[in-house]
Specification:
17% strand; globular; single chain; 5-stranded mixed beta sheet; alpha/beta
Length: 166
């Protein structure tokens, strides 16, 4: 049985940073089994210090050579950001997600007339995650520069069930 095999060690081939939304299960989307994917899930596939530490662990100790940042159609965190305007939800932690997304340079560069297009916002968020990881020191950036790891973005289309890679 696969779980018994994995007790001796795991060898995932990919780190997959994706959203926590229940309709985005990475192992099912990519038809993978136990031990294949080192999965990191947060609302809006946001990458903070804990997520970054987890990614570095997978790269340094599990020897993952591929990192995928996966956004998806109708992302709830991105919708919260898009609908927030200048309003603040004082006291709730969802606001910290909205603030993080609002601070992304990739979001700020979107023209005002396109800021209501959730797909554009999701793709900018994915680009942010990829850029953040590619420039992350001291672990990831040197490996990217030497072509020892690859970091790519992807978009999951819920309607078609297809994943589009950058």
């Amino acid at each position: 049985n696969r779980i018994r095999e994995l007790k001796n060690g795991q060898n995932p081939f990919v780190v997959l940073v994706s959203c926590s939304d229940s309709w985005v299960p990475p192992e099912l989307i990519f038809d993978q089994g136990l031990g294949d994917v080192f999965s990191i899930r947060t609302a809006g596939n946001i990458i903070g210090d804990y997520e970054l530490g987890s990614i570095e662990y997978a790269v340094e100790h599990l020897h993952c050579k591929l990192i995928v940042v996966l956004g998806h159609e109708n992302c709830g965190a991105i919708q919260a950001y898009a609908s927030s305007g200048n309003e603040k939800n004082s006291g709730d932690h969802i606001q910290s997600l909205v603030d993080y997304i609002a601070s992304e340079e990739e979001q700020k560069s979107i023209p005002a007339n396109a800021r209501s297009d959730i797909d554009i916002l999701v793709k900018a968020n994915v680009t942010h995650g990829v850029n953040l990881l590619k420039s992350s020191t001291p672990v990831l950036k040197p490996l990217v520069d030497k072509n020892e790891i690859k970091i790519i973005g992807a978009y999951y289309d819920l309607d078609s069930g297809k994943v589009l890679f950058e």
